[in-house]
Specification:
This protein is mainly α. Helix content is 53%, strand content 6%. The protein contains 19 helices and 9 strands. The strands form 4 sheets. It has a 3-stranded antiparallel sheet. The longest helix is centred in the middle third of the chain and has 31 residues. It is elongated, with a radius of gyration of 27 Å.
Length: 505
């Protein structure tokens, strides 16, 4: 199957050998590992498929999704000679996604998470079908999937149907930088479409891998942004001539939320040795956006940690329906595809990330306000120059958009399938809007970094800590000090790029 593609030499991650965690996924992606089914996964998959085939030979009663229609059509019995056609039609009819294309890195995660879920041997999928998905992953053959169409309840039906279409030679894929029809790719590679067996189509489109892949992608970016929120806040704290007292461990040990404790220690460590912090004559209290960084950033850290735990459970779960239990001789139709745990968590994550942006914008506002011996809008010749005035407008606009995006998706539900699917999670909508919040947060933090470093440089010759000076020095290689008005959109883009590539402690 793979002889028409130049095989890449890379380390291999064996599916089913160890549980997936966010750290494991990060390692797989960062090291560009290929994947393979290990012997245990292969045995489980074959055992379950063989059980179902034997079951259908011995019994003729209706079993949902295996020899019946789907959803409201559950009571329509399908004859044995049409079971392959039933699964083929299922993929075609459910591939009705709209909107933008899902980013390639998320599609690749969808493939990996679908393979992982199928590897446990409760889905009655054929081994060759899973192996074809593995081939797609390893050779970056990425199905074209769309952002809109999932209710996040019967699994991510429409997105997963698009993910599965290339298995049967349908749909489109992105390969080697080009979008092409699957049929054309197969002709190029001398591959052949698969003929799905009973239950396979349903195993492929039932599941939460669209929501899960978005969540994993978001959480991988979130860890970096949460870290940067602390570092940038520390720069702002020093630049605004704040007190170090609010970060003393004694205050936080008597209200020992984990995230709060971690943040207070981190800020204090980052500012250790700062000449600015050591200066006397400071105001008695600082505004909340500086003084309450441990409490606010810490609460978001705790929320992120909770969401991580939910997603780590989900990506190691079986989420299609019905589930097949060979050892117990049971086929159970239930509801593991319902995305409620993810929907609630994604809404929570939106709020946690939006709050990091909200408090960041408040610090920007304070820094450009002309207080504490800083010039208005952090520019020389204010009046002739507007300086960083409008950066705060932009940050405020983005913060407001995030507030709108924080309206929860999970409180909504629309009846579908003629009332058979009468409560849905809307977790897919929660996933796509959460990614928008992440991108917005990147821009807000970039604006604060631009502002805070400008203010810090205006404090010279006094210096911050060695750690902060190291970060600022690296940043100045990307974005120079602002002596006079220039196009700030360019500075913001460069700042976003810096946040994404520079590793801080």
């Amino acid at each position: 199957m793979t002889n028409q593609i130049e095989l890449k030499t890379m380390p291999v991650f064996h599916i089913s050998e160890q549980p997936l965690t966010l750290d494991v996924l990060t390692e797989i992606i960062s090291k560009n590992k290929s994947i393979a089914l290990n012997a245990v996964a292969t045995e489980r998959i074959e055992k379950c498929r063989n059980y179902l085939d034997n079951k259908l030979k011995q019994h003729n009663e209706p079993v949902y999704g295996i020899n019946t229609g789907f959803g409201y059509l559950q009571n329509v019995k399908v004859e044995d000679e049409n079971l392959t056609k039933l699964q083929h039609n299922l993929l075609l009819s459910h591939a009705c996604g709209t909107g933008e294309e899902v980013p390639a890195e998320i599609v690749k995660l969808m493939l990996l998470l679908k393979i992982q879920s199928l590897s446990y041997g409760y889905s009655a999928i054929a081994l060759q079908t899973v192996q074809r998905l593995v081939d797609f992953y390893n050779h970056d053959i990425l199905p074209v999937v769309y952002t809109q169409g999932s209710l996040g309840a019967s699994g991510d039906l429409a997105p997963l149907a698009h993910l599965a279409l290339p298995l049967i030679g349908e749909g489109e894929v992105n390969y080697n930088g080009k979008k092409l029809k699957t049929a054309d790719l197969y002709a190029q590679l001398n591959w052949h479409p698969l003929s799905l067996h009973s239950k396979e189509g349903l195993a492929l489109i039932n599941g939460t891998q669209f929501m899960s892949a978005y969540g994993v992608h978001i959480l991988s970016k979130t860890q970096n942004l949460s870290n940067w929120a602390d570092v940038i806040a520390a720069i702002s704290i020093d630049a605004f001539d704040c007190r170090i007292d609010p970060f003393d461990r004694l205050s936080h040990e008597i209200r020992p939320h984990k995230g709060q404790l971690e943040t207070a220690k981190k800020i204090k460590d980052l500012l250790s040795g700062s000449e600015l912090i050591a200066c006397g004559g400071k105001q008695t209290q600082d505004p909340y956006s500086f003084r309450c960084v441990p409490q606010v950033h810490g609460a978001s850290k705790d929320a992120i940690a909770y969401v991580c735990s939910v997603f780590e459970t989900e990506i190691n779960s079986v989420t299609d329906n019905p589930n097949v239990f060979p050892d117990e001789d049971r086929i159970i139709s239930a509801g593991n595809f319902h995305g409620q745990p993810l929907a609630l968590s994604l809404d929570f994550l939106c709020i946690a990330l939006a709050e990091l942006g909200s408090i960041s914008e408040r610090r920007v506002f304070q820094l450009i306000s002309g207080q504490r011996n800083l010039p208005p809008f952090l520019i020389k010749d204010a009046g002739l120059n507007s300086g960083l005035m409008i950066t705060q407008y932009t940050a405020a606009s983005i913060v407001s958009e995030n507030k709108q995006l924080c309206t929860p998706s999970s409180v909504d539900s629309i009846v579908s399938s003629n009332g058979q699917e009468d409560h849905v999670s809307m977790g897919a909508n929660g996933a796509t809007k959460c990614l928008r919040v992440v991108k917005n947060l990147e821009n807000i933090l970039a604006i604060e970094l631009l502002t805070a470093t400008q203010a810090l440089d205006l404090r010279k010759p006094l210096k911050s800590s060695s750690e902060i000076e190291k970060v600022v020095s690296a940043y100045r290689k990307a974005v120079s000090f602002n002596d006079a008005d220039r196009i700030l959109a360019d500075d913001i883009k460069k700042s976003v790029s810096f946040i994404n590539r520079y590793q801080t402690k």
